[in-house]
């Protein structure tokens, strides 16, 4: 059993430093706060590190050292205190920064930037929200596989939960979040299936194992265990050869034809930038103040964060 003092020493980035006052006072402070809450415990360590400036506190190291990392998941993270820095005032996103006066060009500019940004592993991952006829929502991630004035495309199983919801209520919302860029894009619109030729073309381009996966999985159905999928996959492997798997009828593409696309950029002072494009309606009278004239039948406006 490692003594509390040794553990506490290893919580800090300079455990070799001998400062007995630091360790003994922190040790008693921690043993009091440990019985109260993780938040006060973390705070105590931080305050001590501010006073004894030669020490720097690492929350993860502290939990590992004290063995509290697995003790109580809630201890690990002070969720209420989680807050990262967004952009500062020198990097605002204003109407003058728009790369295009219609949303597809603007989306392309941000998307291209996201693909080149380290830390954005899947810039095309987007949260897709659908709803039942009664308006009960559900959301999940899918991958964007193409976009343009005809919409934002993704591929899936038409009989899945999302497929069933889209069949009865062909409306959806998509959200991208590119964390290192502090940017998000929200898209809302009507949904249509893509053509079967489009589905065939994309299915042909998928790796062999992904093709078999689409055949093996009755997406969203309840199954007994992983073994069910493995058995099905083995059967399919025996029946198919690479390059000759036909697209199953229940699998294909959808496109979300946007009514509105919002571009959001986070600011550290929480006065975030939000510029929303929406289809121009006959009643709209762009005044260049609240409603701005876009191109290709779009207007844009700034929303309060
Ligand atoms: C990053 C990411 C990308 C995904 N891409 C797809 C996709 O393109 N198509 C798909 O059907 N499921 C994809 N999935 C799985 C879905 O999130 C979901 O589990 C599945 O589509 C079933 O959803 P449903 O039961 O609501 O229909 C992805 C999951 C993640 C986390």
Share of helix among residues? 25-40%
Q: How many structural domains in the coordinates?
A: 2
CATH fold description of the largest domain: Pnp Oxidase, Chain A
Largest sheet: 10 strands, antiparallel
SSE succession? HHHHHHEEEEHEEHHHEEEE
Give the low-confidence spans: none
Give the end-to-end Cα distance, rounded to a whole number of Å.
52 Å
| Shape summary | flat
Please name the fourth-level CATH homologous superfamily of the largest domain. Electron Transport, Fmn-binding Protein, Chain A
Overall average pLDDT: 86
Name the ligand types.
flavin mononucleotide
CATH class of the largest domain: Mainly Beta
Write down the Rg.
26 Å
- What percentage of amino acids are in beta strands? 15-25%
Count of helical stretches? 10
Counting DSSP E segments of at least 2 residues, the number of strands comes to 10
Describe the protein in words.
This protein is α+β, with helices and mostly antiparallel strands and 305 residues long. The chain folds into two domains: 4-81, no CATH class; 89-302, Pnp Oxidase, Chain A (Roll). The chain has ten helices and ten strands. It has helices spanning 4-9, 20-33, 38-51, 59-66, 73-76, 103-115, 161-168, 196-205, 208-216, 226-239, and strands spanning 125-131, 137-143, 146-148, 151-157, 171-178, 183-193, 251-265, 273-279, 292-293, 298-302. Strands 1, 2, 3, 4, 5, 6, 7, 8, 9 and 10 form a ten-stranded antiparallel sheet that branches. A hairpin with a 5-residue loop joins strand 1 (125-131) and strand 2. Helix 2 (20-33) runs antiparallel to helix 3. The radius of gyration is 26 Å and the shape is flat. It starts with a helix and ends with a strand. The model has no long low-confidence stretch (mean pLDDT 86). Residues 122, 125, 138, 140-143, 154-157, 160-162, 219-220 line the site of flavin mononucleotide.
């Amino acid at each position: 059993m490692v003594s509390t003092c040794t553990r506490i020493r290893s919580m800090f980035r300079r455990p070799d430093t001998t400062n007995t006052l630091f360790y003994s006072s922190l040790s008693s402070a921690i043993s009091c706060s440990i019985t109260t809450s993780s938040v006060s415990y973390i705070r105590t360590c931080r305050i001590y590190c501010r006073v004894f400036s030669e020490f720097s506190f690492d929350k993860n190291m502290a939990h590992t050292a004290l063995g509290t990392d697995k003790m109580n998941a809630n201890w690990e993270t002070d969720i209420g205190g989680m807050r990262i820095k967004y952009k500062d005032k020198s990097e605002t996103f204003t109407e003058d920064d728009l790369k295009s006066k219609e949303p597809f060009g603007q989306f392309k500019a941000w998307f291209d930037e996201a693909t080149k940004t380290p830390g954005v592993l899947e810039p095309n991952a987007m949260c897709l929200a659908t709803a039942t006829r009664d308006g009960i929502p559900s959301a999940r991630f899918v991958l964007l596989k193409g976009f343009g004035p005809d919409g934002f495309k993704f591929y899936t199983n038409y009989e899945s939960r999302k497929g069933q919801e889209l069949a009865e209520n062909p409306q959806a919302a998509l959200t991208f979040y590119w964390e290192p860029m502090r940017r998000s894009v929200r898209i809302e619109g009507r949904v249509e299936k893509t053509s079967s030729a489009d589905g065939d073309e994309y299915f042909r381009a998928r790796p062999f194992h992904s093709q078999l996966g689409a055949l093996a999985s009755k997406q969203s159905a309840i199954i007994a265990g992983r073994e069910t999928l493995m058995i099905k996959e083995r059967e399919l492997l025996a029946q198919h050869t690479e390059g000759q798997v036909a697209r199953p009828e229940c699998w294909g593409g959808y496109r979300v034809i946007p009514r509105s696309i919002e571009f959001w950029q986070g600011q550290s002072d929480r006065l975030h930038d939000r510029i929303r494009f929406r289809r121009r309606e006959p009643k709209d009278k762009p005044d260049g103040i609240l409603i701005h004239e876009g191109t290709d039948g779009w207007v844009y406006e700034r929303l309060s964060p």
